[in-house]
Amino acid sequence: MAQQHLDPTDPRSRHVGPSPTPGSAGTGGAPVGDALADYLRAQATEFLRALRLHRETGTTAGGPNGAAGPEDPVDAARALRRAVRRISGSLHTFRPLLDPDWSESMRPELAWLSGTLAMEHAYAARLERLLLALHRLSGAVFPAQPAVGAAVGSRSAGAEPGAAGPAAHPVTPDRGNLTVGAAKAGALLERQLTLARTRSHSTALQALGSSRFHAVADHIAVLASEVPLTPAATTTDLRPLASAAEGRLTDAVTALPLVTAGHPYNAEALIHGLSPDPAPHPQDAPWHQVRLLLRLHRYAHEVLQGADAPVNVRLLTAGQALDRHRDASEAAAAAAQAARTPRIAPATAYALGVLHADQRHEVEAARFAFQQSWQKQTVGTP
Amino acid sequence: MAQQHLDPTDPRSRHVGPSPTPGSAGTGGAPVGDALADYLRAQATEFLRALRLHRETGTTAGGPNGAAGPEDPVDAARALRRAVRRISGSLHTFRPLLDPDWSESMRPELAWLSGTLAMEHAYAARLERLLLALHRLSGAVFPAQPAVGAAVGSRSAGAEPGAAGPAAHPVTPDRGNLTVGAAKAGALLERQLTLARTRSHSTALQALGSSRFHAVADHIAVLASEVPLTPAATTTDLRPLASAAEGRLTDAVTALPLVTAGHPYNAEALIHGLSPDPAPHPQDAPWHQVRLLLRLHRYAHEVLQGADAPVNVRLLTAGQALDRHRDASEAAAAAAQAARTPRIAPATAYALGVLHADQRHEVEAARFAFQQSWQKQTVGTP
User: Fold this and answer.
1) How many of the other CB atoms lie within 10 Å of CB of B275?
2) FRET partner for B255 with CA separation of 20 to 30 A, picked from A128, B210, B335, B348?
């Protein structure tokens, strides 16, 4: 939220009354619609800043393999995704406070934009994760410095930058330490995921040049100065809507198999590792859903607390565990998918099998980490 | 130790003095050589009983696929191995109290016998473990009742009969729920491990009919009535020798990476899962060594405490974790070995890769379980 000082309209100047809570008015200091407006304006401003940065850096740095500077298109794209997710999430949680025609027309456009912008990075991160795992599984030694080039940084703002363990090491382009099977598996994954990434890059570029995108960007530009609140919003307490978002989260968490997840090495995540069903593990879906609900809860928390709110470390940790869960789940599926490539060598297939199981193991580890952080969580006092 | 009532000479009749501690004499109630003699006599008697049982049941029940009754050759073979291990271990720990010529000539013979008798069961248990894992990984449903036939019971007396988790379920001969890859992997493992098992069965039968075995059995028959103690043994305190065995154990445990092992999902066990080195994981060796030292410590504890000693549950639990560690380590190696079979299908190799990683995951889980039980352990008060 450090970007908020770039906001042309200082949100703090809009506070009503002497209360330190941003946007509070007439309801005993409770946050009302103005706090939501402040938040949306700040996110819209951040979106416009990131878009400008993306246009400035994107043209010189080029495609997915371009050189990455301190203000590179990867950072800009991440900032774009961050802002779009927050606007989209706030529209969802605080829907009754916003002009219904406007928010109903915006929501599918934001979802489209968010999805389109996420794909390229997701493929890059998936490849990095899988190559790192192959190196770890081969007992290869990692350098202390992050590699540039294929490495595109952490997947999202909350993607465990300080996580311990071998997976946190960067991948090296060298495959000299790998066995034939691991090297071939790495080459196959690199081919398949780089292709998918390049396609996503083109799709994202096309999207950013489309009239559909320009329409969304225009709407967000308007949002940076004028938030279409309903007439009643300025005196409506935001907390019941935020509580409802939290309630949806806690309900979904309650339905998770947390007792099993809290028992280390329960071997649940791999239970369908050789199932005939090629679809993604159905057991992962409730966890993915909690990940989305946790994010909505976190954004609602940001709206209520304003720009100066301290980060809720426990919510962040739980969210990081679920990000890791999602990433490992998708990486495991990619390894299984690669193993279905026709005419691969048995050694390649063997390495992909080990890799798949390793990533399912990561899925299980992430569930354990979530369970641990959730137990510590004082739910209800975000 | 319930078999001790079968001992022709009641060991309790040999106690010196009114002390309740068996075999104590003249050293303030401390256990002396007589306690060792009692223990060795009891184990030798148990060996002879198991051998008689093995001969009676083995001829009618036949080979490794014979019908298994309540007093089957599997039980008899297990009882034989149990007794041989205990005699062998006691000779090692309490060597200074025994006639050196006799014990030095006995020890390699007992090691040979113990190793020869263990192989068949080890291959059978390994196959069972791997087929169970394949079923679990395929999401197959298990019957509630143990299967007969290939199943040969738990690997050792301490092989976690009540362990939780899917791996505790018995295997079914049906492979209908498996994918092609899992079914082919299962068939390949079954072929390879059944062949190894059959060979071990023949080797064991040959060994039991050999003059070398008859010489060992004669020595053990003598041991059942007359233990060759040194003249000083009847007044020598056993506890320093038992403490030395415990010291060797605690030194070896101290050298284990227990901090890592106590951190769930540390991903250490699979770190060389795709290493070019086809040898068994060198990281497993210190754990295997601790397993042997723990066993020697447990047997020394049995000698000191006598027949009525309560089982030390924590030592038993720690030992079970290390048994599981060894079994999973060997099963993982067997899966990796099978994957090197020429001309296997990629789907088979993939399934073997998943299976290998699953068993290495089990190795890691066993280390965690050992660390947990060891932390609870009050070392020094066995």
Assistant:
1) 19
2) B335
pLDDT of residue B40: 97
Q: Report helix, strand or coil for B111.
A: helix
Angle at which helices A180-209 and A211-223 cross, to 10°: 70
Locate the chain B residue with the closest alpha carbon to A184. Answer: B274
> Measured between beta carbons, which residues in chain A are less than 8 angstroms from residue B274?
134, 137-139, 178-179, 181-182, 351, 354
Based on the number of CB atoms within 10 Å of its own CB, is B182 exposed (0-12), middle (13-18) or buried (19 or more)?
Answer: buried
> Model confidence over A176-227: pLDDT tens digits?
456 889 999 999 999 999 999 999 999 999 999 999 999 999 999 999 999 9
Coil, strand or helix at B98:
strand
Q: Please name which of B358, B286, B297 lies closest in space to residue B326, comparing C-alpha atoms.
A: B286
State whether B361 and A365 contact (CB < 8 Å). Answer: no
Residue of A nearest to B180 (CA): A276
Determine whether B220 is exposed, middle or buried from the number of CB atoms within 10 Å of its CB (0-12, 13-18, 19+). buried
**Closest CA relative to residue A295, chosen from A272, A315, A280:** A315
Helices and strands, number each (H, E), in chain A: 10, 0
Option in A349, A354, A365 nearest B274 (CB) = A354
Intra-chain end-to-end CA distance of chain B, in Å? 17
Coil/strand/helix, residue A178 = coil
Contact B358 A273 (CB under 8 A): yes
SS3 A8: coil
B350, A339: Cβ pair inside 8 Å? yes
**Enclosing H/E stretch for B75:** helix B73-93
pTM of the model: 0.81
Residues B144, B145, B149, B152: what is their CA dihedral angle, to the nearest 10 degrees? 100
Q: Which residues of B touch A (CB under 8 A)?
A: 134, 136-139, 165-167, 178-179, 181-182, 264-267, 270-276, 339, 344-358, 361-362, 364-365, 368-369
CB contact under 8 Å between B368 and A275, yes or no, is no
- What is the rounded distance in angstroms from the CA atom of residue A226 to the CA atom of residue B118? 80
Q: Within a 10 A sphere around the Cβ of A23, how many other Cβ atoms?
A: 25
Dist CA A64 CA A66 (whole Å): 6
- Contact between B157 and B82 under an 8 Å Cβ cutoff? The reply is yes
- A-interface mutation test, from B179, B189, B341, B350, most A Cβ less than 10 A away: B350
**Is B264–A365 a contact, with Cβ atoms under 8 angstroms apart?**
yes
- Beta bridge partner(s), residue B31: B24
Task: Tell me which of A132-146, A232-246, B36-50 is least confident.
Answer: A132-146
Q: Do the chains contact at B358 and A267, CB–CB below 8 Å? A: yes
Q: Helices A346-376 and A100-137 meet at what angle, rounded to 10?
A: 120
Contact B182 A274 (CB under 8 A): yes
Question: Predicted confidence band at B353 (pLDDT cuts at 50, 70, 90)?
Answer: very high
